[in-house]
Each structure stands twice: as structure tokens, then as C-alpha cells.
């Protein structure tokens, strides 16, 4: 049988790259890179995104292997940075949900009973809003996480040694996406508590905060899942969009209206950066977020990618002055909080 993708040696792969318009100036370096990262990761993984000519396997003339390698390294490191701070926001959301649920509905849940049986159960059906029509299904899925703790040691410990599992223990065994759904069915006042403590704004209405937060969380969830599965950070992988007016009000130094109208900061990689900057409400974390970004991008700040003539920030779909914008935003935000 003649296979579609037969084995190729490193030299054969390098010759294949050269035949596709990729300049390989140092074959020894290319071999070392290919021995650490697959050809697909370094080459095929990027061609359909922004490098290849339409309808062809041929790369844009002037594409250098070293630039593909650099972009991949930046892409990988950027994913690690974003994943780290999305995790902080996930923990913050879960903390606020568990706090308001515990305060208003108690710390007991009977995992052997359906969601509508016990009014003393914090997962009791009528403790939550039915406005989106998913209340019962979401609460049932949350209870299932309590029934099957998998490898969550805290939840297993509580089930084996305590007479109840409080919300702040249960929610740690719940995926980010399901936590967002739990937030989505909170009653209006409970949801407002979460919004007011995540979206810090004295000018937005409660409804505007709620709209922004739900869409922002869904965007983070979609990008986190894609990055965790190795997809490129600059691929647009979500259908959710940040609402224009709340976004421009919350982050005027991070995004301009003309950029939003040209689809910058709406649901792309830069929107993830904006959301993290807006929802990180800890000055220490915000300072570290900025430092991580500077450390990653500053060495390339004046460099242009030859094949497209763009800066590295532009290649990733972000404004040229992104680092300055994040710095100015953080300074203004935390001076106001202080």
C-alpha cells in the first residue's frame, strides 16, 4: 500500500520544506528542532492559519524556518501564560459562587436525592433561576460531580470523614464550563454579588456587568480548552463576542472603538488578554501578568517577521503598543481601587 503520509527522515523533511518556499539556512539547527518538535507542529500546524498561499501547500516567499520556530516558541509560552491567569480567574469565580451559595442556602447537599426534593439542600431546584430553561439539567450535573469525585482528594476526604460537603469543596470538583453554567442559573441578587466582585465598575449597569461577565467567561473557557489541546493561540475558536459598550467602558486604554469594529478585541486572542486584565482584581497578579507579557514579547518588540513584514505582536493579532496599554490600564485600575 502506498501511504498518504510515509515516514521521512529529517533531511527529507528539510528538503520538503525547501520545496514549499521555506528558507532553511542552517540544516543542523533545523534537524535539532525537528528532533524536539514534530514537522507537523512546526510547519503544518501553522500553514493553514496565516502562512500558506491560498489553496496551496506553498508558503509565502521569504518564509524562514527560524521564524516558524520562533513563532512556535512564543506561541507555546504565550499559551502557558494565558492558561495560568485563566486558572486564577476560574478560582476567583468558583470562590465567589461558593461564598454566596453557602451564605444564602447553607452548606449541605444530599447527593442521593434529586435536585428538587430537599429545601435544605443548597442545590435545591428553587434556590436557582429558571430563566434559561437549563436549571434542572445543570443542577443534576453538579450533583453528579459530588456523587463521582474522581481524583479530587478534598472531596473524597469530606465524603469519607465529614457529614456534609460544602459548596467550596464541591465546586473544586467541577469543570470550568460547568461552573460558568452554575453562575448562569444563580438568582438575580446572587448573580449581582458575583458580578460586582469580578467586574469592578461604577459606571456600568448591573445588566451590562452580567452580559459582559458571562460572555467573557465563555470566551476564556473556549480558549482555555483549545490551548489545553494544543491549538494555536492566534486561531479564533469561539463564537462568543464581548459586548461593545461594556468593553469600551471597562477597558478604554486597552481597546478603541475603531479596533473593535474591525474585529480586534471582540473574540480573538487580544480579547482574552483584555478579559484577563479586567477580571484580575489583585494588584500582585496583575503586576505578574504584565511582567510575564513583557518578558515574553519585549525581546522581539522591534523585530519584523520577514515574510509578512509584521511585528510579533501583530502576528498574534495584538496592537503594536499592547504592553504599554496593559501597563497603563493596570496603573489606572489599581490606583482607583486604592
N-to-C SSE series? HHHHHHHHHHHHHHEEHH
Question: Structural class of the helices, strands and pairings?
Answer: mainly alpha
Strand order of the largest sheet: 1-2
Structural shape: globular
Distance between the termini: 70 Å
Described by strand count, sense and barrel closure, the largest sheet is: 2 strands, antiparallel
Notes on the structure:
This protein is mainly α and 338 residues long. It has one domain (72-228, 237-337). It has 16 helices and 2 strands. The protein has a two-stranded antiparallel ribbon with strand order 1-2. A hairpin with a 4-residue loop joins strand 1 and strand 2 (310-311). Helix 4 packs antiparallel against helix 14 (283-297), helix 8 (176-184) runs antiparallel to helix 10 and helix 14 runs antiparallel to helix 16. The model has no long low-confidence stretch (mean pLDDT 90).
Quick synopsis:
By secondary structure, the chain is mostly helical.
Overview features:
two-stranded antiparallel sheet; globular; 16 helices; 1% strand; 2 strands; single chain; 338 residues; mainly alpha
List the helices and strands and how they pair.
Blueprint (H helix, E strand, L loop, with lengths): L9 H10 L7 H10 L2 H13 L13 H41 L29 H13 L5 H9 L5 H4 L5 H9 L3 H11 L7 H23 L15 H7 L6 H5 L7 H11 L3 H15 L6 E2 L4 E2 H4 L6 H16 L1
Antiparallel strand pairs: 1-2
Helix pairs in contact: 3-4, 4-8, 4-9, 4-10, 4-13, 4-14, 8-10, 9-10, 10-13, 14-16
